[in-house]
Design brief:
With 341 residues, the protein is mainly alpha-helical. It is 75% helix and 0% strand. Helix 4 packs across helix 8, helix 6 packs antiparallel against helix 7 and helix 13 packs antiparallel against helix 14. The longest helix is centred in the first third of the chain and has 26 residues. The radius of gyration is 20 Å and the shape is globular. About 2% of the residues have low confidence.
């Protein structure tokens, strides 16, 4: 038994938990950030809303699983801030559990998550934030232990919290993962086919989606778009190129890394395919590009020495933080300090 490795893992876990508690507390103390007033209203009224799975979404525009979490904490008579703290901490825990199953340093994953998805997923879109973290955990369970039933249960839980996790059904039973193992020598061909197919499917879907979803029809009236050369998209292209160039190392065949990169390929394809419909380009694309928080630590550990890895990590952290705070959510810091009505 390697006691040194056990000590390092436990020390890393303690550090992760401490950082997660600090940032969960920061999340819980937030003010009038986007969507927070809607979540507070639901929390205050949850005991007056019938918890009927068939009608809950129509009444609240929020998923039934999210309603159950609200109802549980309201039943315990906890205030809204404590609910936010627990919810944020739970998101961090599923990120850690997914990282551990993928065999990745969870602290490095955390520092990749904080500048990219923390502000949007913990200060605003909290349903999506937890749903995606659970969805990646469900994948990690299937890949690590082949526990497909357990994986599917957690997939259902993620969808019940936010339906944005629905597309992850394509990863059920590791079909893509197993195909990748068999056809790994054709990896770049698979990546190109997947990329082009995703773009084409998105363009086809964008022409018909508004006809069968009232909510999508409502969103489409906003006419929000993000140009192909928007800095956020340029960052995605650069990361994808970086991932594909540095995906392998001599005598190293990391199938988990290859799988996560293909997940990112799908995400960038969605961003391009829905470039003229921001709500889908952003929210749907994000569930796949979220894989970057796992890819970066893997590539840095496989391809670079410690000093070079720190340099790349610093560049990644700085650029991601700038884009998050000044382009994606430019007003969120000011909103954080505004009191809720």
């Amino acid at each position: 038994m390697n006691y040194h490795n056990i000590f390092v893992v436990k020390k890393r876990s303690v550090l992760f938990i401490v950082i997660a508690i600090i940032f969960s507390f920061i999340t819980a103390m937030r003010g009038n950030t986007p969507d927070t007033i809607n979540y507070k209203s639901l929390y205050n009224e949850i005991d007056r809303i019938p918890l009927n799975p068939s009608t809950f979404y129509d009444q609240t525009y929020m998923e039934y699983g999210f309603g159950l979490i609200n109802a549980f904490f309201k039943y315990l008579n906890f205030d809204f801030s404590f609910f936010l703290f627990f919810y944020a901490f739970l998101t961090f825990i599923f990120i850690k559990k997914a990282s551990d199953n993928f065999g990745i340093n969870n602290v490095v994953v955390l520092f990749c998550y904080l500048p990219t998805f923390y502000f949007l997923h913990q200060w605003a879109q909290i349903r999506q934030g937890l749903a995606i973290a659970i969805a990646y955990y469900s994948i990690s369970v299937a890949i690590k232990n082949e526990q497909h039933f357990k994986s599917f249960i957690f997939y259902i839980i993620s969808v019940s919290i936010h339906n944005v996790a629905t597309p992850f059904i394509i990863f059920f039973k590791n079909i893509l993962f197993k195909l990748l193992i068999k056809l790994n020598k054709y990896y770049y061909i698979i990546a190109i086919i997947l990329f082009i197919s995703t773009i084409l499917l998105c363009r086809i879907f964008s022409g018909i989606s508004f006809d069968f979803s009232d909510r999508l029809s409502g969103y489409s009236t906003y006419e929000e778009s993000r140009g192909l050369l928007h800095p956020v998209n340029l960052r995605a292209y650069a990361l994808l190129l970086f991932f594909l160039l540095f995906r392998t190392k001599s005598n190293t065949n990391n199938i988990i890394l290859d799988f996560l990169i293909l997940t990112y390929v799908i995400g960038v394809g969605i961003r391009l395919g829905f470039y003229d419909f921001l709500i889908l380009s952003g929210r749907l694309g994000t569930i796949f590009t979220y894989s970057e928080i796992f890819i970066i630590p893997l590539i840095l550990s496989l391809r670079f020495n410690k000093i070079t890895g720190y340099i790349f990590a610093f560049i990644y952290f700085s650029i991601s933080l700038y884009l998050s705070l000044f382009l994606q959510t430019p007003e969120i810091i000011d909103q954080y300090f505004q009191p809720l009505p």
